[in-house]
Amino acid sequence: MSGHSKWQNVRYRKERQDKKRSGLFGKLIKEITLQARNGDPDPVNNSGLAQALERAHAANLPKDSIDRAIKRATGELDGVSYEEVTYEGYAPEGVAVLVRAVTDNRNRAAAAIRHIFVKHGGSLASVGSVSWLFRRQGMIVIEQLPQDLDRDEFLMSLIELGAEEFDDQGDVIEIYCAPADLAALSEGIKKAGVVPSRTEATMVPQNTAKVDGRAAEKVIKLINELDDNEDVQEVFANFDIPDEILIKLNSE
Fold first, then answer.
1. By the number of CB atoms within 10 A of the CB, which of 40, 64, 81, 206 ranks highest?
2. What is the pLDDT of residues 207-229, one digit of tens each?
3. How would DSSP label each residue in 136-192?
4. How far is it, in rounded angstroms, from Cα 218 to Cα 6?
5. Domain spanning 83-133+207-240: which superfamily?
6. Tens digits of per-residue pLDDT, 8-25?
7. Bridge partners for 85 per DSSP
8. What global pTM score does this model have?
């Protein structure tokens, strides 16, 4: 997938999440609770929690909701117990789909996700069928650099902070790193006076499936319905869909 198409695919999901803010809040609370329970409740010592909190702040999740989620995780407040489950499957045209769910009812989540795949012409797959196509990476997206900043010098300085790969498209710069280096790299970018538009640990496809026309609409409908499910936290897919189709579908 070209870098621009990759970013458009990511941006499509982000813009759609922003439109569905009420559902997003519930998912963020689940994620914060899970990450705080699975590790140190101090984000300084828990990168997963730190990333969840960064997404929560970006979405303007109220501070009291964040505090309650962490207190439930530490046992200070009563609450349900969440577990993380990954599902693998295929959308139409052989598009590989990886679904990460956080749920308090594994059977409910599995049944709902299977139904969504079948409804839209896809199917669930066995463990390992799809996951090998993706690699966990830290990703930082920059959409604007200060005019007085030397672009080449800035990018070279990021290598010392852990940057492994750059995709400089002029108007958008994508920076990739190991997930463990994401926090330090993000902090270094901010110290240089640059504000990233997106910072996250994501699953990057190692190869892609080009999809167009009606097939693209079918794929997006499946991805959207998965994303709408209350138990689903993240959906990753290796589709390469033209920007104009993503823009059209996002406006509907």
1. 40
2. 888 998 889 889 988 998 998 89
3. EEEEEEES---TTS-HHHHHHHHHTTTEEEEEE-SS-EEEEE-GGGHHHHHHHHHHT
4. 19
5. YebC, transcriptional regulation domain (3.30.70.980)
6. 455 445 555 555 555 778
7. 101
8. 0.77
Kindly list the strands in the beta sheet with 173-177, ordered across the sheet, starting from the edge strand earlier in the chain.
163-168, 173-177, 134-142, 198-205
Which tokens in the block code for residue 183? 């926090």
- How would DSSP label each residue in 9-60? HHHHHHHHHHHTHHHHHHHHHHHHHHHHHHS-SSGGG-HHHHHHHHHHHHTT
Domains 83-133+207-240 and 134-205 share a fold: yes
The CATH classification of domain 3-74, taken from the options 3.40.50.2000, 1.20.1380.10, 1.10.10.200, 3.40.50.720:
1.10.10.200
CATH for the 134-205 domain, from 3.40.50.720, 3.30.70.980, 3.40.50.970, 3.30.300.30? 3.30.70.980
Residue type, 136: R
**What gap in Å lies between CA 8 and CA 26, rounded to an integer?**
25
